[in-house]
Amino acid sequence: MAINHPSFGELADGRIIIFDTTLRDGEQSPGFSMNLEEKLRMAEALHELGADVLEAGFAIASPGDFDSVQSIAKRFAKDGPVVASLSRANTADIMASAEATKGAARPRIHIVLATSDLHMRVKLRMSREDVLQRITETVTLARNHAADVEWSAEDGSRSDLEFLCRCVEAAIKAGATTINIPDTVGYSLPADMGLIFSTLINKVPGAEKVIFSTHNHNDLGLAVANTLAAIQAGARQVECTINGIGERAGNASLEEVAMALRTRHDALHATTGIASQRILRTSKLLATITGFDVQPNKAIVGRNAFAHESGIHQDGVLKDASTYEIMTPESVGWTTNSIILGKHSGRAAFRDRLKTLGYEVGDNQLNDAFKRFKDVADRKKVVYDEDIAALVDDEVGRANERIRLTGLNVSTGMGTKPMATVAIEVDGERADGMATGDGGVDATFAALRQAFPHEVTLKLYAVQAVTSGTDAQARVTVRLEEDGKLVDGQGADTDTIVASARAYVHALNKLLVKRQRTEPPVVLRA
Ligand code: KIV
Ligand code: ZN
Question: Which of 396, 418, 441 is the last residue of a domain?
Fold first, then answer.
């Protein structure tokens, strides 16, 4: 019998559903938390990329998480991706997910319950029979609130396979429409995955009515390999994240899975709805929002992924790129001629370039971004696409900020005490600060503390170059802590101290938003 999924109807042969969990599993990794506005931007980008399901969050985790899931669901009220929210196997979690996702055109409740003997004994303190009963009760409850229900067997890959079959059978009987088998701790080998999926698909009564899904962590660097092995054994949904972010070593990376399926269609016979040319910019957007760049040698989106250094390779690529390239850089969004606009370029050309890069900005944002572009073009010999992306991402992230940096002056050098003066606007009111420090950046942060008095701990200060060269823009990440709450801010500029000040002010603004929310800390171990 063909699968007739409530959200996808009949799936075409070989079509793989891409379930993106950047906003849930990805966001759970330390330092990767995003605020509501950032999550909405990511959700938009993921939709444009072609993700089929967005796991928007863990609705019960905090009021902030609930808001994010609800806002993303409302954004996709008419059409768009399936919007899922994670829930543990209890009534409160499921009701929170049901409420938060109900505004979406295609809502999904995702329930997780551990099935390995270890997790059941130590963590859940439940017997096998208890777990089976809980699956039936909770999936039934969820089905009363949503047509699309996913059930996940946490630590599924380390569960007794006979028992896992019984659990899956119970979930299907209770109405689950997707069955997900996570390799929660990244322990499996590809051959294990093949065995698990082929056993479940061939043995469990009713298996033909549901979509099987794979969710792999990267503790042994095997997340993508395990994902492909699961697909070869019949999985039709892949859970993954942009840049492979996620708990501990991360999840299977969406871009690697999508490009493996495309490049090796000959062997895997599977397709996705991913618009591959948007991969790079989605990856960059995530890096800008979180402040974490991928490593240079990261497959598909790393700076060196298509760089050919050795003479032999360069010679081969010049003669025929396919000698050393298994996919074209353009197919994932890299541009060959990345030297673009200069200081004489006008607004129309700038707007046009933004469009090509995939940015749709409103008039006000265009004005602000254009001013920043002119400023960068004045100081930088060549303005690359990466520069434009960095400054637009930076500008868009700043809409509605209460604190704005309006002026900065720093004097520093050998044998002098570095000193900074700053001017800011707080809700439109001007405030000034002046301070000395151990270096220009330290003095700037001290001056900001004077202009806007606050007590925070600086937890991280990181600088990355957007492109190469001494005139490259610096992208700075600043992490601040106040009363146990962490926020990250980013700033980009050709001047590292200005970028640092912008990043600090960005983080402060996020802190103001956090202060307004009371978020009871919830420890999540999904
Ligand atoms: O890794 C895991 O087990 C999970 C589940 C919540 C799907 O993230
Ligand atoms: Zn996970």
Answer: 396
Is 269 known to sit in a ligand binding site?
Answer: no
Percent of the chain with pLDDT over 70: 95
* Residue linked to tokens 């890299």: 334
521 pLDDT above the threshold of 70: no
Torsion angle in degrees (nearest 10) through CA of 145, 148, 150, 151: 50
Q: How many domains does the chain have?
A: 4
- Please give the full DSSP string across 291-318, using - where no structure is assigned: S-PPPTT-TTTSTTTT---SHHHHHHHH
> What average pLDDT does range 245-251 have in this prediction?
96
Is position 216 annotated in a ligand binding site? no
**Ligand 1 atom, smallest distance to 112 CA:** 6
CA distances from 114 to 106, 146, 212 (A): 26, 22, 17
First CA to last CA distance, the chain: 33
Do 407 and 375 share a domain, yes or no? no
| Mean pLDDT to the nearest integer, 228-250 | 97
Same domain, 429 and 369: no
Tokens of 273: 């709805």
* pTM as predicted: 0.81
Range of the domain at 353: 337-396
Which numbered atom of ligand 1 lies nearest the CA of 251?
Answer: 1
Which CATH number is 493's domain given? Answer: 3.30.160.270
Atom of ligand 1 at shortest distance to CA of 86? 6
Tell me the C-alpha distance between 523 and 526, whole Å.
Answer: 9
Model confidence pLDDT, tens digit, residues 90-124: 999 999 999 999 999 999 999 999 999 999 999 99
Tell me the residue ranges of DSSP E strands in 360-455.
403-411, 419-426, 429-436
Question: Which residues have C-beta atoms less than 6 Å from ligand 1?
Answer: 25, 86, 112, 152, 154, 180, 182, 184, 215, 217, 526
What are the structure tokens assigned to 70, written together? 């609800």
